[in-house]
Amino acid sequence: MGSPKVDKLLLKIIPSADAQVLALKAGELDMIELQPGPVVRELMAEPNIKVMTAPSTYIYYIDFNLRRYPMNLTEFRVAVAHAINKEQILNILLLGMGKVGDSVMVPGLPLWYNPNVTKYEYNPEKAKEILDRIGLRDIDGDGYREYPNGSKLVLKMPTINVGIWPRLSELVAKMLEEVGLKVEVIPAEAGTVIDLLLNKWDFDINVLGWRLYFDPDPYLYESFHSSRIRPGGLNWVGYSNPEVDELLEKQRKAINIEERRKIIFKIQEILARDLPWIPLVYPDLIYAVRIDTFRGWVAVPRYGLRNVYSWINLEEKTPLRAVAYFPWYKYPLISISLGLCFLIALTYSSGVHRIILPIFFLFSSSIMGIASSASVRFSYPSSRSIVFPVDEYGRSAFSSPLTLSSAISGYLDSLMAFL
User: Which of 134, 136, 135, 118 is CA-nearest to residue 81?
Assistant: First the structure.
């Protein structure tokens, strides 16, 4: 791929997402990572900004507290699955930037993703039929279902109060209410929600997300093995299935990758049947880049635009051009002499030389200008940098200092473009 066309990576911290967007619009940044929302559409309308996406290994899902009734009934979870319009969530929450979810594994890891698991189509009428059949009916006619003993059924949904989680919780709650399930959304700080899930197990239903790494074991084993049902454990839903436990242990010992793949596929099939989680969507990574500065961004699954291929491939949209000029007014005798030489060359030359000699003269005088510390004009300031997010709290940038050789090559590039 050759050497990078830039020399440095610089880190620039801009904690506020709003400030990052403003800086990108002002041309102070060259790339930022975005969260789904109105700002994405806003940036799409900017003439010098392009919104780009890349496949991720994220999954957003609904999970259930399987220790509580009626969440411990598979039929109830199937009814909830039929009540959820995943396409609507994808389009409203993610502006269509992602895929509808079906398996607990993600298509961003194609080796381990099983696309042929049981799928639950959006069918609110079927959801209502199932809920009626298991005894959860609207007894008092207020539009919400009660327990079989007549007491109110209210599902507690703690949700993180920042990012996409309030909106996702709102969408899920509204869809469940359309089939008669009343949901109490409880917004709280991330630490409080995690404590309710991992330690206190004080929830009925929840929406959350995972980011998977390259191997599925840490994610699947920690989330679904019964040994992880403990305070602080990641199996906070309380899912326990001896067959899944056995398969999770077996895949850890498998040497042949195809054998292990079949085991992972089988685990996904069982989880899609048991539904301790309902996969919702696989969101894409979303970025906004300036298109008037650099080109060559390379989208890589899981890493998005922040990857070594981008750093090697990136180059300025218009090659960096340096046009040096000789400060004639500072050196009048030299200027007059050069001017006379130019006129003589132009007068006594003919044919192709009439073109070549003036060009040689201009080039020579430009090099003299550089050598004598004359001003050098650039189409981009030498302080120009590419800025990209390192994580949700920081942004990085890189820039290329101009050297004499790059100035000369820039001059030649401009000259050839002119000719």
Answer: 118
What are the φ/ψ torsions at residue 77 (nearest 5 degrees)?
-65, -35
Are the C-beta atoms of residues 276 and 92 closer than 8 Å to each other? no
Collapsing DSSP states into helix, strand and coil, what is residue 186? strand
What DSSP character marks residue 226?
G
Please give the structure tokens belonging to residue 197. Answer: 């899930």
> How far, in Å, CA of 389 to CA of 380, rounded?
22
pTM for the whole structure: 0.72
**Alpha carbons 78 and 59: distance in angstroms, whole number:** 19
DSSP annotation string for 270-321? HHHHH-SEEEEEEEPEEEEEETTTEE----BTTTBT-SHHHHHH-EESS---
DSSP state of 53: E
Distances in Å between the Cα of 47 and the Cα atoms of 43, 150, 290, 400 are: 9, 59, 9, 25
Give 114's pLDDT tier (boundaries 50, 70, 90): very high
Q: Please name the residues in contact with 87: beta carbons below 8 A apart, sequence gap of 6 or more.
A: 100, 122
32 CB neighbour count, 10 Å cutoff: 24
Report helix, strand or coil for 65.
coil
| Contact in structure between 52 and 307 (CB atoms under 8 Å) | no
The tokens 């004639």 sit on which residue? 328
The b-or-e profile of 48-61 (16+ CB within 10 A means b, else e) is: ebbbbbbbbbbbbb
- Please give the share of the chain, as a percent, with pLDDT higher than 70: 74
Average pLDDT, the chain: 81
